[in-house]
Amino acid sequence: MNPKLWVRFPTLAALALIVLAPAASNAAERRFTYSYETTTTPKGVWEFEQWATWKSYSNRDRFEFRHELEYGLRDDLQLGLYLSDWRLTNPDEGDTEVEWRTAGVELIYSMSDPTKDLIGSALYGEVLIGPEKFALEGKLLLQKNFGPLALVYNFVLEAEWEGKDYEETVGVIENTAGISYQISPNFLIGAEAVHEVELAEWEDAGDNVISVGPNLSFRKGNFFTTITGLFQVTGVDGEPEQQVRMLAGFHF
Description:
Layout (H helix, E strand, L loop, with lengths): L2 H6 L2 H10 L25 E11 L3 E15 L2 E15 L5 E16 L7 E11 L2 E14 L2 E14 L5 E15 L4 E14 L3 E2 L3 E12 L2 E10 L9 E10 L1
Antiparallel strand pairs: 1-2, 1-13, 2-3, 3-4, 4-5, 5-6, 6-7, 7-8, 8-9, 9-10, 9-11, 11-12, 12-13
């Protein structure tokens, strides 16, 4: 299959998964694709998630994949295993490049409930390692639910070492936010926003990059899929002009 079909029309994958979704019990809880919620997978429950992200630059398209397996160690502690992160880059002129990037692990510790408590909160930690990338990432997750309405905010701090000898050091500060409303038992609609700034060697701050856009989430039984489309509003060269991310997963 021509890879451009996947690059240009990533929503086809989401539609196919919705049509083929199995009916079971216990819907998944992923309303957002760029922000994490403060709730965690229940103790003893496994979840598989498939990520697919399309990014459109001025001179190329890129499609990124992640295969993730999650497990509830406790009701308030979730382990995530990034089995593989890889990407496909398709320049307007030239050969398509497929590149394996990293594997990794994450932990999410839920500290308070977004419905019962004044505000939901959780801590997130992540380690990624690959042949040309090593990264450490921490997040503060906040969430508040008002019936069918959910509001989330993530503060993200990341350190990356890139290159064959990990000689390039980059710091990343990111803020994400999302709003989602459940319009029926199966469908939720909302929006997300992402703000990011990179710091070369933790000294020289780059441009502020802000992207915003709508999202849609579907869940049925133990299956869910969520898709978000973001559009850059700051006009920074070298950053994605638009991007689409889809998550699809199921509990077992």
